[in-house]
Write the structure tokens for this entry.
Amino acid sequence: MVSPFEVLEVDEDADDEAVERAYRERVKRAHPDQGGSVEEFQLVRRAYRELEARDENGDGDDGEATAAADIDLGDDGEAAEVQPTRVEFLDYEAIVDYGWSLDDDDLFRKASHADLAPDAHGRLLVQPDESLLEAAERSGFAWPFSCRGGACANCAVYLAEGELSQPTDHIMPDDLAERGFRLSCNGYPLTDELSVVFNVKQRPELDDLILPPGPFTRR
Ligand code: FES
């Protein structure tokens, strides 16, 4: 058994913000692409889920916060498996065509009623060991990319809901990251569900970060 706090390397009295910060840092390091293993990556996600469950359960009758359960490292049963992240996606070109706004809270509801092509609006699953771009490609979609290494914004997506990790050595400026822009080639879901707009590289604020078309560019 191991404490979820130990796994996330955070104090037991850490507040939600500190836990979230610790998780984002820890899950990036644990990812197989960053030198971790699938088992470690899943353990970190399980630890975060335990702490989320503690928060959802809230305070007990005695006013004390519900204790987070330790994780049984020998439990590899179905209940312990980390489920894939469910992603609803929308092509930025549809937003342009319909005259919608990227930050419209109703964007995905509008998309649901617009009879868009399956590759313009739909859903896909991201497995725990793949980036958002890899999951899109495995699902048969040709989302834009170029370097696949965090050095351009050709693979940029806009996060309408959920959270996607971002490695430290990426090109996305802080102000754009704060507005919800992320890179799909090295972004790994940190939440169970995501709503993303892909193909946002044509947004003017990303112009300076785009690599010109080359042998590795799909669009
Ligand atoms: S393809 Fe260049 S940063 Fe993702």
About this structure: The mean pLDDT is 83.
